[in-house]
Amino acid sequence: MTALAAWGRFVYRRRWLVLFVSLLAVAASIASLLAGGDLRNVEFSDTESGRASQLLRDELPQPTGAPPAATSSFILIFTSKDGLDATDPRFVAAMNAALDPLRADSRVVSVVTPDAVPAQQAAGLRSKDGKRALASVTVQGGTNAAGQFFGALRALVRSDSLEILATGNIPLNHDIDTALEVDLQRAELVSLPLAFLLLLLVFGSAAASFLTLGVGVVVILGGIGGTFALARSTDVSQYALNIVTLIGLGVAIDYSLFIVSRFREELARGASVENAVAVALATAGRAIVFSGITVAIGLAGMLFYPGTFLVSLGLSGSIVVAISVVYALTFLPALLAILGPRVGAWRLPFVGRPSRRRLWHDIATQVMRRPILVLVPTVAFVALAASPFLQLRLASADATVLPPTIESRRGYDVLVNEFPGQDQSAVTVVARFPDGDPLSATHRAALEDL
Asked: What would the mean pLDDT of 211-216 be, rounded to a whole number?
């Protein structure tokens, strides 16, 4: 008797205990999910740019009158609905009136407008055609922290005579996070019903389909709970939830499908429920253990990118795969032991019958008889489907990943196209000298050469 077969018999005999412990784990996952966690953009601390940013924060003094280092900012663009110039007193008065609530908010450090700075600097805060003006709003906290209260600040800025657009790192990150949440919900709303329909076609039984899909949902809860628990001890990217949901659902359904199918086959051959559970875990269970280890090892490859968000994706993915294997070997067989033959209840007509299984057997037989005839068109189809990869353009996520209708994207397009100098990027170079005054003649000459 193999170890997994012995485990299957143990689960059968202690099925209520195993189910109770599994449900305790599910409850712990739900508690961790409800407690939440701070999923945020992970700074590239071990890269050259990350080290330069750290030096700027830690070692360079702030200029007189500059805001504290632990601040961030966003931009508000104002346009008159009546076509007034940005220098018109009525435009200026309406703009300041809209900004007054921000100036009174304790989370706002400063608000810079064209009418409050020298003329030369004010020119850069007005559009090229003179119809728009921008305000630079500096707030407490870094970009990630400010994103938590940006929505409340944005709601304070209103005007009946001006159109207002918010853009900059804080609004863009806020909208990207919001878009990810919406996409994740849409993916779940589409994938769960579709997976259920496919399971109905495979099993021909609503009970078996609900059971398999239920395990997938439980695994997702466990993965998200584990991700939030991880976020309380280290930086975790907001993209981790997408990884957990998509990988968790797919892997959990895949593993559960193997176990349930083999369990039902053994019952159909006349085996007892205990023997069916034991054989299912000894055969299909062995396959999913090695499959889970292989997938986890593949995801663990992301751990070799320290200082990037890929580490958190690798950890989150490995966690949800491990949870999938554990629940497939505990929670699922305990339920199978309790349900027994009732796992095939609520059978659908004309689906999952022996004739359907015979169809797949005939297809496999024909493929093996004519492998070349099947292989050539299959490879051609796969190559055609993969051809768009040749035009793949890899780049970091920026404002262009958002739809043009999103406010921060609209503001970004206006800022870049209509304000002077905003279509340019600046690179900050930090030079660290081993000794002496960095502004000495020798060091300044070295900087000039650089």
From this structure: 87
Among candidate residues 160, 166, 196, the one with its CA nearest the CA of residue 351: 196
Give me the pLDDT at residue 66, please.
47
| Helix %, strand %, coil % of the chain (to 5) | 65, 10, 25
Give residue 365's domain range. Answer: 349-379
Q: How far apart are CA 155 and CA 174, in angstroms?
A: 14
pTM value?
Answer: 0.73
The 3-state DSSP class for residue 408 equals helix
Report how far residue 102's alpha carbon sits from residue 146's, in angstroms, rounded to the nearest whole number: 14
Confidence class for position 116, pLDDT limits 50, 70, 90: confident
Q: Are residues 138 and 160 in the same domain?
A: yes
- Rounded Cα distance between 180 and 27, Å, is 26
* CB count in 10 Å sphere of residue 425: 5
pLDDT at 20 over 70: yes
Are 187 and 294 within one domain?
A: yes
Residues 190 and 329 in one domain: yes
Q: Are 134 and 229 found together in one domain?
A: no
Torsion on CA atoms 93, 99, 100, 101, rounded to nearest 10: 150
As a whole number of angstroms, the distance between CA 372 and CA 255 comes to 31
Of 148, 172, 196, the residue that ends a domain is 172
The model's pLDDT over 171-184, given as tens digits with 9 standing for 90+, comes to: 888 888 788 778 77
Structure tokens of 406?
A: 């999103």
